Amino acid sequence: MKDVEDTVKVMIQQGLQPDVFTYSTLMNAYCLQGNINTPIKVFDIMKDSGLVLDVITYSVLLKGFFKCGRRDEANHLLKQMVDNNISPNLHSFNILIDAYCKDGLMKDAEDTVKVMIQQGVQPDVVTLGDVSHEQIYWISTSLFLSSS
User: Which of 142, 55, 53, 41 is nearest to 92 (CA)?
Assistant: First the structure.
C-alpha cells in the first residue's frame, strides 16, 4: 500500500490531480485489507476537493463498511448516496444483498431485491450467487407472493 500512496503523492507533486477512479482504486485496496478508516478519510478528501463522487466510489465504501461489520454506517452511506441523487447500480445492490444474507437478514435482502426491481435494475446470477439454496427459495417465494 505504501507504493500506491507514494504514487498518489508523486502525482500531486507533479501537478496531476488524482481523479475519482484513482481515489476509488486506492479506497478499494484499503478496504480489501480490512482497513476502513483510511478509505473514509480518502472519501472525505474527495468530497472536500470538489470531485463528483460516483456510484463506484460509494459502492467501494459500502463494501468496506460491510466487510468490517459496520452495517449502520453502510446503511447511512446508502441513504447519503440516494440523497445525493446517485442511484445504486447492480453492483451496489449485490453488495447489499450479499451482506444482508451473510448476516442472516433475509427480510432486508428480500426488501433490497424488491427495491432493485422497482428501480428497473434486473438481478443477475451474481445477485444470488453467494446465497444458499434455502435463502434463494426464501427470497424468490416472498417476491412471488408479494407480486400476486
Answer: 55
76-97 per-position pLDDT tens digit: 999 999 999 999 999 999 999 9
pTM of the model: 0.81
- Please count the helices (runs of H) and the strands (runs of E) in the chain: 8, 0
- Three-class SS of 77-93: HHHHHHHCCCCCCHHHH
Closest CA to 25 of 49, 52, 61, 76: 61
Q: State how far the alpha carbon of 54 is from the alpha carbons of 4, 104, 109, in Å.
A: 21, 29, 23
Q: Which residues contact 84 (CB under 8 A, 6 or more apart)?
A: 53
